[in-house]
Design brief:
The complex is a heterodimer.
Chain A lengths: L1 E6 L5 H7 L3 H9 L1 E4 L13 E7 L2 E3 H13 E7 L1 H5 L11 H11 L16 E6 L1 H4 L4 E3 L6 H13 L59 H4 L12 H5 L5 H13 L3 H7 L3 H5 L7 H4 L6 H6 L4
Parallel strand pairs in A: 1-2, 1-3, 3-5, 5-7
Antiparallel strand pairs in A: 4-6
Chain B lengths: L1 E5 L9 E7 L5 E8 L5 H4 L8 H4 L8 H16 L5 H34 L9 H7 L1 H22 L8 E2 L2 E2 L5 H30 L11 E7 L2 E2 L5 E5 L5 E5 L4 H4 E6 L2 E8 L5 E2 L2 H7 L6 H14 L8 H22 L19 E8 L2 E9 L5 E7 L1 H20 L7 H13 L4 H5 L11 E4 L20
Helix pairs in contact in B: 3-4, 4-5, 4-6, 4-11, 5-6, 6-7, 7-10, 7-11, 10-11, 12-13
The chains are: A alpha/beta, B alpha+beta.
């Protein structure tokens, strides 16, 4: 069994998540051989005959695309590992601005550079937009999470290596959360820094934009458990993936309306910074953008990309 | 004119390549460390509600997410006028040491050690942590165990082992309970014991360190507190290559000292002091600047390190040892903090209400060096300007010059062997460069594996803007 890990536009966190199997990684390595993983070993090109290739990161330039095509050709099974590979992830936020504006700001605009700074040209060009891996090539399995969590990878990796089926929860973050519903009269949306949430009750009910209801689980609701609202890093919940009329934004608004009896139009007036609070992990996903009701297209359009 | 490329560089975080240009006599004309990715966080954070920054910026780097999380939350604290209570601050400090334990362990044992344990001229397929697991399984198990300590503390205190979320404006979101404290303390004591054992290995590496390999001369920049090693908070000090003091700063005053510039052939910006002096950051810099580590085991190690290398160390390969001294310090401080009764206090968070200042700067020592997050917001707390100064950017010039210094004698008759190529990579690796941090990868260029020779490319001469004769060139 030959395994490869290819990193595209990413932070390497998903590779670290594999190392975070800790001693259990040695068991996996007893049954499978890592033949290519540039972050941890010196083999500089994916060999032929890979059984399972884990691809992490989004596709943001031509080389990402070429490497993705190559690994797809050389691997029997391709696994999109992590939210960037599955939905574009945080790199998708780069689409809020066009690349000229970005280069001008980074190399000529910030306070520590000079207005006549060099904008590098002898470097690879961007694609016109960010893509998730599955937007471009056939993907056999998706493992979401930013990054995927140890307790699940510990089950998933040995099962993949052994070629055995595995049934895991497909529920939302809310299903893993231990909070209870409280009273929510006079509900008002709060900024996530305001006040101190109580530990017992639903964060959304307390006025915090917690995306648990619209986010795929398998994280043990770790953020709500730590008294921090969910910001959706596992990507959308299964109902949103399946239903064209369901999207992160409209399902959140509907959820708040159901909870509070406040009209949806009134709730929408309180919403702020839709790009960074609703779509920071999915804005680069074509399947999410293609939903007729998605706000992604508006967000990108209003910034002239 | 021909060009040799080593690409992609391996066992470092993110993608980069070495480009060596040869002259008509097949000798090295010039060589560069070239980074081929940009993600643009500085730009796409604009418009964000500022409290989202500590959640978004950890995604800059999966190896040092905690450093970005903490630098970012310190900047947001400044904007919201929040001062975390004592326990909140101690939990953040513990989180920071957990980051060091994980990051330094991964670099020392898993990325750098294969060159020293398996051998830098061993076959490429064996030069990895997997090679170490085969050659020295006991060492691999210990490396796994001690890195796990870092990740377990980060998970318990930060909420998640990778991309933590619990440092929030005003402090921390969740206290540490007594039972968890107890189990982490037992792990930390075990981790410290492993780290102390590993010092013997580090010592062997220290004795074998080639002090001449790729040496450049620069000044140094790093944070201390009353001259002591202090990676979470303090004053940033700058010294010259002869150890002369070149200034200090806190907060927004970094803009008075540091400037950035760019080159045509790399997405990664370079920094220097405004007076033109180049400097380095990270373990080597911090140890050159501080008077002591503040913990007994690390201080003893520092004494040995200084006896071997001197008070002011310029050799890049000494980074590996400096990193180990810090690794010891973080294991010791983790034990100390977990023994501190205040660590399980429940007063962890100061309430915050709104924008008190429209600009906030958060500075922290990340494992790879000084990290600065600088946000300017409008009166409602939405980001209008953002500047991120990361470690690898500040080491970029030294890495680039090191590459040329090492490549020059290694290229023989216009050719570079695989082992020689790894020798160049080995020196670069000593800086532990983090390309994701440095540029925020939106894309990366990966060239065919081995060494590829390119034909003459027109206009190439114009790409070189660094002046020869600069005092950093060897």
């Amino acid at each position: 069994m030959k395994i490869a890990i290819e990193e595209l536009a990413s932070c390497s966190g998903c590779t670290i998540a594999i190392l975070d199997l800790h001693e259990a990684l040695l068991d996996v390595l007893g049954k499978a051989e890592i033949v290519y993983a540039p972050v941890i070993m010196d083999v500089k090109e994916p060999p032929e005959g890979i059984d399972i290739a884990f691809v992490t990161g989004a596709v943001r330039n031509e080389e990402n695309q070429e490497r993705l095509r190559k690994i797809r050709k050389r691997a029997k099974t391709v696994v999109a590992l992590g939210t960037c590979a599955c939905y574009g992830g945080i790199s998708g936020l780069s689409m809020l601005f066009n690349k000229e504006d970005m280069f001008n700001y980074v190399f000529r605009g910030v306070e520590t550079v000079k207005p006549d700074g060099v904008i590098p040209k002898d470097v690879p060009p961007f694609l016109y937009r960010a893509f998730a891996v599955g937007d471009i090539e056939k993907v056999d399995y998706y493992i979401t999470g930013c990054p995927p969590k140890e307790m699940y990878l510990k089950k998933i990796l040995p099962a993949l290596v052994a070629g055995e089926p595995l049934a895991l929860s497909k529920k939302s973050v809310c299903s893993e959360c231990d909070r209870v519903m409280g009273a929510h009269e006079k509900w008002q949306l709060k900024r996530r820094y305001e006040g101190i949430p109580d530990r017992e009750h639903c964060l959304l009910g307390q006025g915090y934009l917690c995306l648990g209801a619209v986010t795929f689980g398998r994280c043990g609701a770790s953020c709500p458990h730590s008294n921090v609202p969910c910001h959706g890093c596992n990507g959308p919940s299964l109902d949103i993936l399946r239903e064209p009329c369901r999207d992160i934004y409209n399902m959140m608004i509907r959820r708040i309306a159901d909870l509070t009896d406040k009209p949806e139009a009134e709730i929408e007036k309180e919403i702020y910074d839709v790009a960074h609070t609703f779509y920071p992990f999915t804005i680069g996903s074509l399947i999410m953008e293609d939903k007729g009701i998605s706000k992604i297209r508006d967000l990108i359009k209003e910034r002239n990309v | 004119m021909t060009e040799i490329r080593i690409s992609p560089m391996t066992r470092l975080e993110g993608h980069a390549q070495v480009r060596i240009t040869l002259n008509a006599q097949n000798q090295v004309e010039r060589a560069h460390f070239s980074v081929m990715e940009l993600r643009g966080f500085e730009k796409f954070l604009i418009g964000a509600a500022v409290e989202e920054a500590p959640r978004i910026t950890p995604r800059i780097c999966g190896i040092c997410p905690t450093s970005h999380h903490l630098a970012s939350v310190k900047a947001v604290d400044a904007i919201l006028g929040a001062e975390p209570p004592e326990t909140g601050k101690k939990l953040r400090e513990l989180l920071n040491h957990a980051q060091y334990i994980h990051s330094h362990a991964i670099h020392f044992f898993m990325l750098a050690a294969p060159d020293f344990i398996v051998g830098h001229d061993a076959p490429a397929a064996d030069r990895s942590v997997i090679g170490i697991a085969k050659k020295s399984p006991a060492l691999a198990k210990k490396a796994i165990e001690v890195r796990k300590l870092g990740q377990r503390i980060t998970e318990a205190v930060g909420g998640k082992p990778i991309h933590p979320s619990n440092a929030i404006p005003g402090g921390m979101s969740r206290p540490l309970d007594e039972a968890t404290r107890g189990s982490l303390l037992a792990m930390a004591k075990g981790g410290l014991a492993i780290a102390q054992e590993g010092w013997d290995l580090a010592r062997v590496m220290m004795d074998g360190t080639d002090l001449t390999l790729g040496t450049v001369e620069t000044g140094f920049l790093g944070m201390t507190k009353e001259k002591k090693y202090s990676p979470y908070e303090g004053t940033v000090e700058i010294i010259g290559k002869d150890r002369s003091p070149l200034g200090t700063f806190t907060g927004v005053d970094y803009t008075k000292q540091i400037e950035e510039f760019s080159e045509d052939w790399s997405y990664l910006k370079f920094t220097r002091l405004k007076n033109g002096t180049f400097y380095r950051v990270g373990p080597l810099a911090r140890l050159n600047i501080c008077s002591s580590m503040g913990t007994p085991v690390a201080d003893a190690a520092l004494k040995e390190y200084r006896a071997k290398f001197g008070e002011t160390v310029q050799a890049p390969l000494a980074y590996n040892l400096a990193r180990y001294v810090e690794f010891l310090a973080s294991c010791e401080r983790a034990v100390e903090l977990l023994q501190d009764p205040a660590i399980t206090g429940t007063n962890i968070r100061a309430p915050v209400s709104g924008v008190k200042a429209t600009r906030g700067v958060g500075i922290i020592e990340a494992p790879r060096g000084t990290l600065i997050h600088d946000y300017t917001v409008n009166e409602k707390g939405f980001i209008e300007r953002c500047n991120l100064l990361v470690a690898t950017c500040q080491n970029n010039y030294a890495i680039d010059r090191t590459v040329e210094a090492v490549a020059r004698p290694l290229v023989k008759d216009g050719a570079l062997t695989e082992a020689a190529a790894n020798r160049i990579e080995m020196v670069i690796r000593s800086y532990d460069p983090c390309i994701s941090c440095a540029t925020h990868a939106i894309g990366k260029r990966a060239w065919p594996i081995e060494l590829v020779r390119h034909g003459h490319r027109s206009g190439e001469g114009e790409a070189l803007r660094l002046e020869k004769g600069d005092d950093l060139l060897c």
